[in-house]
Amino acid sequence: MFDVNIFPWHSKWLARKKYLARLRDNFKFGLSFSCLNRRPPRNQPQIAMSKPPSFSRQISSTVSSLLAAYYAGPYVLLLRMALLAILLLSISRLGLIAWQWDRVSATGQVFDMLLQGIRADMIMICLWLLPAVLLTPCLAKTRIWLPLSYAWGLAGLILMLFMELATPSFVMQYDLRPNRLFIEYLEYPKEVFATLWGGFRVPLLLGIGLCILVGYGFARAMRVRPASVRTWPLWQLWATWPLVIVVVAMGIRSTTGHRPANPALFAITGDALVNSLVISSSYSVVFAAYNMKHEARSSEIYGSLPASRVIEEARQWPWFTGVKFDSQLPTWHQQDAVRRRERPLNLIIVLEESLGATFVESLGGLPVTPRLEALKDKGWWFEQLYATGTRSVRGIEAVVSGFMPTPAQSTVKLSRSQHNFFTLAGLLSDQGYHTEFIYGGEAHFDNMRSFFTGNGFSQVIDIDDMPNAQFVGSWGASDEDLFNHAHQHLLSLHAKQQPFFSLIFTSSNHEPFEFPDGRIDLHEEPEQTVNNAVRYADYALGEFMDKASQSPYWHNTLVLIVADHDNRAYGPSLVPVDKFHIPGLILGADIEPRRIKPIASQIDLGPTLLSLMGVSAAHPMMGRDFARDSHSPGRALIQFDDYFALLEDNHRLTILRPEKAPVAAVYDPLQKRVSLLNEPPGDTAVEKALAHALLPSILYREQKYPGRGPAMSSGTSTLSQSP
């Protein structure tokens, strides 16, 4: 029944058939730990060992013996893979906990993290094992089963190993384990590899080396001699298979509750990073991929409200008092410009890559943006402006379309928003404007070209249209080259007396932080750091604004300078609010200096710009026109991973969590700290936050955020009833 090669280092000693028979009689199940050190009787000839066995070989053979002892049969390699995976993920988790010990220890939940971590690991392991287990009855009696189960188990181990090795660099950038952003970036291997090679070369090479080394160890540990695997009779195979299926299914479900376990179940602390350490990176990415198939209903993870109640709540802000909304398109309304102009102004939006308040001294950051600081006294300066998310496409969505954030991908990348989705470009092109997007990199990145060309932008200019760029880095032309090209292009449009809207998107302040030498006094050494890159981006912006302010198009052009998001969103809280604080400045034409003090969101910029430009139009944007109302208490909408937060003017936060009760918190802007409150948020606060989380999903799913809608009359009237 059993082959002696289950102990490969001992097999040469067992030369006599008589001794083999005695071994089988003494050890009924074919193995015993004592036999590892047992020598043959004196009257038995001994055969000298040519070479002592390696430690890894001994461990591998011992594990094989144990599994055979318990009749693992055809499941021997799958079970071995599960044990090795638990070992791998547990060691990785311990390493990450040690690395982030200050934040982990502050939660007081170390033991629970380790215990729940093994539970979460079993979900991922069972998910991986399920396809092989389903095939077992059909293939276990064939010759291909052992090679197939070996390859499948080894592939799972290497995948989990790769994800764990990729985790530290991802955490340093996003303060979370790999999630949906990891998947989104895989669509752009060229840009990602350039970033990794330029900014993370040592971790990349070290990770590849460790992956090869540990992967080889797994390959050795997974080996098994076919003779050592006990063959099950067909009846035993089919009789036990349903039980194995049930065990694997329960491992995936991991609970007897109404709903199966998901990452939200393991969010046991008030620190988003610490919560992410409980689960494995492979499980985090797999769950994110699953959720991406349900983008249209992504916000429903927070709960539900009747659509009529959602719409009613979203209209309750004071700046919508007296506004009449369309009965079919619930956010469509007429906005009349506060500034009446014979000829509306041109518009330039400079979207600065990753330039958060972290780098603006007057907003509590580092002194690395002196040119922006000098400009703030020449226009409308937003003191409490907050980004809606952590990605460039989220910032584009908010600034250009005025669209609220969701847990799903930005609408820049979603299928139902590639045509007839509202943008400022679509509105202005209908009024005779030339609309364009100017970017120093490749415009196809993050699906920007497709989104823009399908929604009102008549021209897209990128690196291919800048053959004379003096400096080209991993992400394209330098900001200087970008602004020089844009300036010449704007001069030509002005010479043609063509009104224009130009969206200029910078990229120099992006890892690996490449920029021309000799332009700035470095803030620190070495040269390629984020603070130096921000200083260069600020320099290039200042040079462009100097040229623009002296150009013939300046007197009839409005300019918005705003960040898409901060460089990194991190901190020991569920939602690091301070990392969503960004600068915003409106200047140009006849704009007088002014400080905007209430809390504001990126979605407020579009309506404010239209009003200052002198453009009256109907649109679906639910942002606030600060030209009409600059004194009412404000609000900001923040999407951080799977958490949605509504920040109101008293700095109180209502934080929605997937499939968990909401929590209340207070944000201290001076200390830059979010403190969770012991008491839960009130029903009114929860309903308000939930409505703002659900509304954009409803508008996207039902395609009620169109580029063109019904014509509406100017003036004001009472609020219409919710549809």
From TrEMBL:
Enzyme class of the recorded protein, top EC level: hydrolase
Keyword Membrane appears in the UniProt entry: yes
Xref: SUPFAM superfamilies: Alkaline phosphatase-like (SSF53649)
Membrane topology type: Multi-pass membrane protein
GO cellular component: plasma membrane
EC number: 3.1.6.-
Transmembrane segments: 77-101, 121-140, 152-174, 194-219, 231-252
Domain Sulfatase N-terminal: 346-615
Listed GO MF terms: hydrolase activity
CDD domains: LTA_synthase
Main location: membrane
Record keywords, A-Z: Cell membrane, Hydrolase, Membrane, Transmembrane, Transmembrane helix
Subcellular location: Cell membrane
InterPro entries, per database record: Alkaline_phosphatase_core_sf (IPR017850), OpgB/LTA_synthase_biosynth (IPR050448), Sulfatase_N (IPR000917)
Annotated PANTHER family: LIPOTEICHOIC ACID SYNTHASE, PHOSPHOGLYCEROL TRANSFERASE I
Name of this protein: Sulfatase
Annotated organism of origin: Cellvibrio japonicus (strain Ueda107) (Pseudomonas fluorescens subsp. cellulosa)
